[in-house]
Amino acid sequence: MIKVVDFFSGCGGTSAGFEAAGLSVVAAIDSDPDAKATYTANFPDAKFFNRDIRWMKTATLAPYVTKKPTDVLLFSACAPCQPFSQQNRQKKKRDERVSLLAEFGRFVKRYLPELIFIENVPGIQTISRNSPLDEFIAMLDRLEYSHDVQTINCQDYGVPQKRKRLVLVASRLGEIQVPPKTHGKTLKPFTTAWDSIRGLPKVAAGEADPIISNHRAAMLSQKNLERIRATPPEGSRSDWPERLWLKCHKDTTGHSDVYGRIRKNQPAPAMTTRCISLSNGRFGHPVQDRALTVREAACLQTFPLTFILHGSLSSMARQVGNAVPVALSKRIGEHFVIHIQSTTGANGKV
Predict the structure, then answer these.
(1) Dihedral of the CA atoms 283, 287, 290, 296 (nearest 10)?
(2) How many CA atoms within 13 Å lie on the side-chain side of 195?
(3) Distance between CA 298 and CA 321 in Å, rounded?
(4) How far is CA 321 from the centre of its chain?
(5) What's the gap between Cα 11 and its chain centre?
(6) Which of 84, 101, 199, 305 is buried most, with the most CB atoms less than 10 Å from its CB?
């Protein structure tokens, strides 16, 4: 059995993928109370610590990480990415969240899990000369882990999004690499946005479907309704008549995707924490006159329809945007299973 502790779990994208791959999630840690509500509803058998990891003692996990000789322990960490994101234009010189990877390192040093998975934005490598990632990798070297770090595009792993992420896998059992691509040229075709959301019922801006959970769209002002109606399929604000232009757009051609419709036959743009807002990216529905619903955004993050989100509309969007795509974590989990099978002896002991 591969027993998983999901650090910075958020609503549970990593956990959902790992469970789908046959792994057993035993505990999760996150400081967001809305993430707790979502996580505990979807993973009732896992212990959830609604805490700030900086004030959590490593000994707290001890009852949940005991294992048999044939068990394997996996620590997953997807720390908040905002300090490292290119989209964050309000970075502080000293953002306290930068230290969270080091805080995760405290638990790694104490328990020496056989496997480690980290996912974040690529910018975590370049925020400083001695980045948090550099320091973490140096620690892995001292602890004799094999590791591999790559910047991947989630569309290459069956996720219907052009979402670039940094992925690290590490093992104390043997050599390990990030799993190879499954989609793209000579492989399976990319999953498109329309593949993921075409079956959902129609809803209008400001409305919710009475049956499909979280299939709820944000309200639009009358002016924004006019704007989305003036946006053709695959179009953007460049298609509007001048009377609908915003003042800030009259003097610039940048950010042309803002107010745009998602292209049906391509992977969608990366879902952000504002993925249901028409004015914060190319998040307009491909054919309906509104922005994405929470459920549609969750589908683009490859959450199953049975996964129910809790919290306000903006909180649910934030949880979805911060999540690791389920299809990606499932592929990572399957890769870990193969790695265990190839590195353990006939008796299965590690």
Answers:
(1) -60
(2) 16
(3) 8
(4) 6
(5) 9
(6) 84
User: What distance in Å separates the CA atoms of residue 206 and residue 216, rounded to the nearest whole number?
Assistant: 7
CA 326 to chain centre: 8
In contact, 30 and 39? CB cutoff 8 Å? yes
Q: Catalytic residues, which ones?
A: 81
Q: Six-digit token pair at 241? A: 């008549």
Q: Determine the pLDDT at residue 346.
A: 44
What pTM did the predictor assign?
A: 0.91
Residue 38 · residue 58 · CB < 8 Å: no
Least confident of 62-66, 106-110, 247-251: 247-251
How far apart are alpha carbons 284 and 289 in whole angstroms? Answer: 8
SS3 sequence, the chain? CEEEEEECCCCCHHHHHHHHCCCEEEEEECCCHHHHHHHHHHCCCCEEECCCHHHCCHHHHHHHCCCCCCCEEEEEECCCCHHHCCCCCCCCCCCHHHHHHHHHHHHHHHHCCCEEEEEECHHHHCCCCCCHHHHHHHHHHHCCCEEEEEEEEHHHHCCCEECEEEEEEEECCCCCCCCCCCECCCCECCCCHHHHHCCCCCCCCCCECCCCCCCECCCCCHHHHHHHHCCCCCCCHHHCCHHHCCHHHCCCCCCCCCCCECCCCCCEECCCCCCCCHHHCCCECCCCCCECCHHHHHHHCCCCCCCCCCCCHHHHHHHHHHCCCHHHHHHHHHHHHHHHHHHCCCCCCC
**Domain positions in the chain:** 2-186+325-343
Q: Name residue, tokens 């591999």.
A: 148
User: Under 8 Å CB-to-CB from 72, ≥6 apart: which residues?
Assistant: 1, 2, 3, 114, 115, 173, 340, 350
- Of 1-5, 139-143, 233-237, 345-349, minimum mean pLDDT range: 345-349
Contact 166, 141 (CB under 8 A): no
